[in-house]
TrEMBL record:
Keywords: Kinase, Membrane, Phosphoprotein, Transferase, Transmembrane, Transmembrane helix. Its EC number is 2.7.13.3. The modification 4-aspartylphosphate is found at residue 636. It catalyses: ATP + protein L-histidine = ADP + protein N-phospho-L-histidine. This is histidine kinase. PROSITE patterns: HIS_KIN, RESPONSE_REGULATORY. It comes from Faecalicatena faecalis.
Length: 711
């Protein structure tokens, strides 16, 4: 038991010794590391300060050399005022304390004109300039007691007033130069000394507790007698080094470095505890920075991966966009080629038929035939323009669906009225089959007609002579009791379409390339418009087709049931022409031909017409007319003197009872949605685009008149 206890004690002691040795070794290594790092850090700082002093010396010599090269241009004239001005300009430019000439007796002529002798620690310094023609850097005291560092160089002798000039110099305050060397290391615990070749203090930093000695090397030797050959190391030995000394009773690191002036040394002294604290702080900061850098690196790696992923995604997206843009441009190019052909063909017909009509004006039957063909070509041109305008409105999101009470039977009859003659011309049969329970619904009859007529007119175009076309409308239960579901099938046994084209049939500017249909007119916009209208009505459209067997379009719409049946619908089916007969119309139109056509057509419809050639005349005509004399104003928009918008606003502001109630209808070639909005803002009641459809004008006047009457 006793032996075991001894063994335990010995074991514990060995562990304690081992741990103590490890700790001691760690402490020793830590001290070595701190000394190594501290001294290295101190040497680096000393190098930086020495480099700054060297750069400052280099700059000073450059300034002085420039001055010496320039002085003859100013001073050889012997003009003292010029000298003073020149020196002052140099001082403002380079920021030194003084720049002056040195005469043969060592006197200094300042830029102010003052003449003085400087006090030098080495009185021979200035005479080395004027007598030995040497460059000199020397400490001195200015006439006002300021400690300065002088850079002086010889010049070619010349006479300035009563002085024989043999040198020039530039000087800085010692403290200013030391501050320019300072890199804010160790705050105010760092002492900096500049020593000449004899160890004399040329310049020193001024801090509380700094070693104040004329010969700082001698002062260090007295406090550190055990250090051998200290003066030899600091003044005559190697150019740089670092050691630990006592200074003012404190352990201090001393770093010495050569500077730009031959034989001079820079001493840098910092207490050991200050450096070590700095290094410990530096180590902690470095550790924190390492952690931060690791985190930044990790974040950077994630960022780089994300960046390249995003770049690849953007590149792919750009490729898709470029491919889409290329296809779109290709489609537009095909469209423009087709549109050019489609516009030129009827336009050629219009011009040709007009020429033939004029040549056969005495043959009424021939002339009427030519005129009828002119009207057909003109209507086709208008339909092309309307398609382009519809596409523009749809693309801008400005196309509006107007839901109102409508009769499905009337819709079917209007479809039949348009399509029957087209089919009859090609000896085709057109059949309509319906299963409808609710005739009255809430919908946009105008655009529903446009859907049906677009599809069926294509069916007529692409179905050969003697072919068959069907329209089937079946009503099914809707999503609720308030709605009915209408399934519309448009079928034909025409030439059909290839599967490759079916995938693009609803795209704008698209026509199938086929020699069998190249002669058929079409802009390639109709199906794009149809699909857009169906989607605006919250419906769906589907197409099936096979070459040589025909095509079937299926349209499905949910329409609200109008259970009231509407006397208004019956009333609106009355003759619209009566609303024009007997009306007094003020027509504002600056184009003579358009004005003449409109006047004749309105008079044939039974209206009384007064005309104005611009907006100003229209305003004056209305203002001078009896109260409620005019029923309607047809206002062109683009007119000289005063346009239609301004004229309408002016009329609405007139102080007469009918200024607000008079119907003002815009008639203009400006047919985009923004033009309609501008008309509304100007106070117009409606907007009709040119070329003017007088049937549509009659209907518009009828609708506005009925609404006015109800109001």
């Amino acid at each position: 038991m006793k032996k075991q206890r001894i063994r335990n004690i010995i074991g514990a002691a060995l562990i304690i010794i081992a741990l103590s040795s490890t700790v001691a070794a760690m402490v020793y290594e830590t001290k070595k590391t701190i000394y190594r790092e501290s001294s290295g850090h101190l040497v680096e700082i000393a190098h930086q300060m020495s480099d700054r002093f060297s750069e400052q010396c280099k700059t000073n010599w450059n300034v002085l050399d420039s001055f010496v090269q320039d002085y003859s241009l100013v001073y050889k004239t012997g003009n003292k005022e010029n000298m003073v001005s020149f020196l002052s300009d140099y001082r403002r430019t380079w920021g030194y304390l003084h720049l002056f000439f040195i005469d043969e007796n060592g006197s200094f002529i300042y830029e102010t004109g003052k003449v003085s002798k400087l006090q030098f620690d080495n009185s021979q310094s200035i005479y080395r300039v004027v007598a030995n023609q040497e460059r000199v850097v020397a400490p001195a005291t200015d006439y006002d007691g300021t400690e300065i560092l002088l850079f002086a160089a010889p010049v070619e002798a010349f006479e300035l007033e009563r002085y024989t000039i043999k040198g020039a110099g530039i000087c800085y305050e010692v403290q200013t130069m030391l501050e320019s060397m300072n890199i804010n290391a160790f705050k105010e615990s760092c002492d900096v000394y500049l020593l000449d070749e004899e160890g004399i203090t040329v310049a020193r930093s001024i801090h509380e507790g700094s070693m104040d000695a004329y010969n700082v090397v001698n002062a260090i030797e007295k406090e550190n007698p055990k250090i051998e050959d200290l003066k030899q190391q600091l003044l005559l030995g190697s150019n740089e080094g670092v050691m630990q000394i006592k200074a003012g009773g404190r352990d201090t690191y001393l770093s010495y470095t050569s500077v730009a002036v031959t034989g001079w040394k820079q001493l840098l002294m910092v207490p050991v505890d200050v450096v070590n604290n700095e290094m410990q702080n530096y180590t902690q900061v470095t550790g924190a920075l390492v952690v931060i850098l690791i985190l930044i690196a990790a974040a950077a790696i994630v960022g780089i991966v994300h960046y390249f992923y995003r770049i690849n995604a953007e590149k792919r997206q750009k490729e898709i966009e470029l491919e889409y843009e290329h296809k779109a441009n290709e489609s537009k190019s095909h469209f423009l080629a087709n549109m050019s052909h489609d516009i030129r063909t009827p336009m050629n017909g219009v011009l040709g038929m007009a020429t033939l009509a004029a040549a056969n004006i005495d043959d009424k039957q021939k002339a009427l035939g030519y005129i009828e063909k002119i009207q057909i070509s003109g209507k086709y041109l208008v339909s092309l323009i309307n398609d382009i305008l519809d596409v523009s409105k749809i693309s801008e999101g400005a196309f509006e669906i107007v839901a109102d009470s409508m009769n499905m039977r009337d819709f079917i009859n209007e479809i039949r009225t348009v399509v029957d003659p087209l089919a009859a011309d090609k000896k085709q049969s057109f059949t309509i089959e319906t299963e409808i329970q609710n005739e009255y619904v809430i919908g946009d009859k105008l655009h529903l007609n446009q859907i049906g007529i677009n599809i069926l007119s294509n069916a007529v175009k692409f179905t050969p002579q003697g072919g068959k076309i069907w329209l089937t409308i079946v009503e099914r239960p809707g999503i609720s009791e308030e709605y009915a579901h209408y399934h519309l099938e448009f079928r034909d046994n025409g030439i059909g379409m290839k599967k490759e084209f079916l995938d693009h049939i609803f795209e704008s500017f698209t026509r199938e390339k086929d020699s069998t249909i190249n002669s058929i007119e079409g802009s390639g916009l109709g199906m794009f418009i149809v699909k857009s209208l169906v989607e605006l009505m919250h419906g769906t459209i589907h197409v099936d087709s096979e070459p040589g067997k025909g095509t079937c379009f299926c349209v499905d719409l949910e329409l609200e049931i109008d259970r009231e049946g509407t006397m208004e619908e019956k009333e609106e089916n009355t003759d619209n022409a009566k609303f024009v007969r007997g009306k007094r119309v003020l027509l504002a139109e600056d184009n003579m031909i358009n004005r003449e056509i409109a006047v004749e057509m309105l008079r044939e419809m039974g209206a009384f017409v007064a005309t104005a050639e611009n907006g100003q005349e229209a305003v004056e005509e209305f203002a001078q007319s009896p109260l409620r004399y005019f029923d309607v104003i047809l206002m062109d928009v683009m007119m000289p003197v005063m346009d239609g918008y301004e004229a309408s606003r002016t009329i609405r502001k007139l102080e007469r009872e009918d200024a607000q109630s008079i119907l003002i209808i815009a008639i203009t070639a400006n047919a985009f949605q923004e033009d309609v909005i501008e008309s509304e803002k100007a106070g117009m009641d409606a907007h009709l685009s040119k070329p003017l459809d007088f049937a549509a004008l009659s209907e518009k006047i009828a609708v506005l008149t009925r609404h006015k009457r109800k109001g």
